[in-house]
Design goal:
This protein is mainly α. Helix content is 75%, strand content 0%. The longest helix has 30 residues, at 9-38.
């Protein structure tokens, strides 16, 4: 059975919306850098747009967290889906830097298949209460799996614009813009699914949700560590790794799309293993001892002299790199009281987005000077530092269940 026995219909709907967002993000994120290069943007400008996306996501998530006790989570999600549609329509319609930078800032487009938008903490705060405590990590694993699996399918489909150009003589820029139209259509479907949610129809304050009080200390410590992890991760978001592969090895979009289909499939399948590892070894141990090897392989990929070796190490890296995601999400929801989950999800997400927003601009500048994989090395070292600090500070703090 794919869903845990105690999962509610709302949890299944949220897993479906996560899958559809993964499909859209996976499709667009692979060719985003190629499209921006095609319309004449420099590596610095591409990095700036990616930074704008991440900062805008952080600001939007913060605003949603500040009003979460007054507005129902269902309305927040529905409004975010409409904003997602606006984002796709904007990228399909305009090609000037400042307009796209503005749309990137206020919109929901992700530079990777991983979700960094307002959707994630809002959905997580609902999901945590839609399953029995014993099944929480398993449910979050399915939630993350859905995003990764459909993100992989989106990556595979990202070569379609290139096929359309070659076989049907479609103007390249128009072929890419059609992908953003597809992203807009997905947003409207997601908005319709949100209207069917049974929970989250009332403001969270009426459901007993309050700002952080009891868990303020532990959430603050986790937030600082997660921000360090995200700062390192910002150097290696998918769009930047793809840009590095383009510049370093001159790969085609179809090849890169196939590579990222493989990486995301491995990431998706690995997340089915993480709940069992967490149950046997503990959540912190699972997060740390799967994350460290992943980041060592990331550093090694940057040092490889050929595309085949670099891709091989990137593939091995992704077999480990996402195992910590459902465990981390479940862990945060488990170490705070139920009434503080919405606030905890928002508080831990915003600094992650802000920290990761600085890195793409730096990475884009580095790639402008050299095609060597300095962003991968810097990102890997920072993320290993996070792993060691997390192990030292939280190894003995266990979820109540």
């Amino acid at each position: 059975m794919f869903f845990p026995a105690s999962a509610t219909p709302d949890s299944k709907r949220l897993i479906l919306t996560r899958a559809l967002r993964g499909l859209g993000d996976g499709f667009v994120s692979v060719y985003l850098a190629a499209y921006l290069q095609l319309i004449g943007f420099s590596t610095f400008q591409i990095g700036a747009i990616l930074t704008g996306m991440l900062i805008g996501s952080a600001v939007l998530t913060l605003l949603a967290g500040l009003v979460s006790h007054r507005i129902s989570t269902r309305r927040v999600l529905f409004a975010a889906a409409l904003l997602m549609g606006f984002t796709g329509a904007g990228f399909a319609s305009f090609d000037t830097f400042w307009l796209l930078f503005f749309i990137a800032f206020v919109g929901t487009l992700n530079p990777s298949a991983g979700d960094v938008s307002v959707f994630l903490p809002t959905e997580q705060s609902i999901l945590a209460g839609e399953v029995a405590a014993r099944d929480r990590t398993a449910l979050f694993a399915r939630y993350t799996l859905a995003g990764s699996l459909f993100g992989a399918l989106g990556s595979l489909a990202s070569g379609l614009p290139e096929v359309a150009v070659r076989r049907f003589s479609v103007i390249p820029a128009d072929a890419f813009r059609a992908g953003f139209v597809f992203y807009t259509i997905l947003a409207l479907v997601i908005a319709m699914i949100y209207t069917r949610l049974e929970h989250g129809s009332a403001p969270t304050a009426s459901n007993g949700n309050i700002p952080l009080r009891k868990s303020r200390g532990i959430v603050a410590r986790l937030t600082v560590l997660f921000a360090l992890d995200s700062f390192g991760g910002g150097f290696v978001i998918d769009s930047l790794v793809i840009l590095w592969l383009f510049l370093r090895f001159d790969l085609s979009l179809q090849v890169v799309g196939a590579v990222f289909f493989g990486t995301r499939m491995l990431a998706a399948l690995s997340q089915l293993v993480s709940p069992r590892l967490a149950a046997r070894f503990g959540p912190i141990e699972t997060m740390v001892f799967t994350h460290i090897p992943a980041n060592l392989f990331l550093v090694l990929a940057a040092l490889m002299p050929s595309a085949s070796l670099a891709i091989a190490f990137l593939l091995v890296r992704t077999a480990f790199s996402s195992m910590d995601v459902p465990v981390r999400q479940s862990y945060v929801m488990s170490v705070v009281p139920p009434e503080e989950r919405a606030a905890a999800a928002s508080v831990t997400s915003v600094p992650r987005s802000l920290a990761s927003a600085v890195s793409p601009l730096l990475a884009g500048s580095l790639l402008g000077f050299s095609t060597f994989g300095w962003p991968l090395i810097i990102g890997g070292v920072l993320k290993i530092t996070y792993d060691l600090l997390l192990l030292v500070q939280f190894r003995n703090i266990r979820p109540a269940e």
